[in-house]
Amino acid sequence: MNIDRVIEIVKETDSIFFDDALRHDVKEKGEADYVTRADIGISEYLSKRLSEEYPAIGFISEEADTDIDESRDYWILDPIDGTTNFMHGLSFCGVSLGLYSGGQLTAGIIYIPYTGELFHAERGKGAYLNGERIYCSKNTALRDCVGFYEFNAYFKNECDTAMEYARKIYTRCQDLRCLGSTAVELAYVACGRADVFFGRYLKPWDYAAAAVLIAEAGGRLDRVDGDFCISQLNVNIAAANSLVFDEFIALVKE
Q1: What is the rounded distance in angstroms from the CA atom of residue 121 to the CA atom of residue 99?
Q2: Residue of 66 and 174 predicted with greater confidence
Q3: pTM of the model
Q4: What's the CA gap between 110 and 210, in Å, rounded?
């Protein structure tokens, strides 16, 4: 796999992403869960282009129902992570593409078209933002950390539980943010703009790319509610720089 070639292919989706007609063509999949024609267009485009370049690698997307067979290699795509932001023209959204190969996540690309930021990583080769090496922060105590928390608007019936997690993180950290895109938030942890992240009911395409970024930037990402398994849906994920990870995951497990 040539990561530079894959980056080129991902950037080819600009013509879809910046098509306002596609952005405003919206359907509701469920409560607070939307899909635009741009989501579908990017998914279909990358499925076609990646299968042409790498026919032996399968393809999994948020916008295509596919079970994950852990014995196979897959591209794992969220065509636009942060669709609600995208619908409203907010910059915190982008393409998230991970590669699952040989039983592990081996590469990840997160592309934020509105800002022109391209994060990428390959296992054992470091993490990069627009070609420059990036690292997680060096804060050693939660009181000095900025945290990200994704409430997950699809589960508003669990509002009290969601707010309790927010309270725990907010009261122990320097401050708390919710940008509305797991991929963007995790990329920001990887480059040291924030220190910790917690998200509820996440799916593989939410974090597959970022998991490699975080690891290669010197951080840690793991499941809070069981063993890490790429085929599992609706899992709780914590990530942080390696210096505060143990303290942070203990906090969200309380």
Answers
A1: 10
A2: 174
A3: 0.94
A4: 7
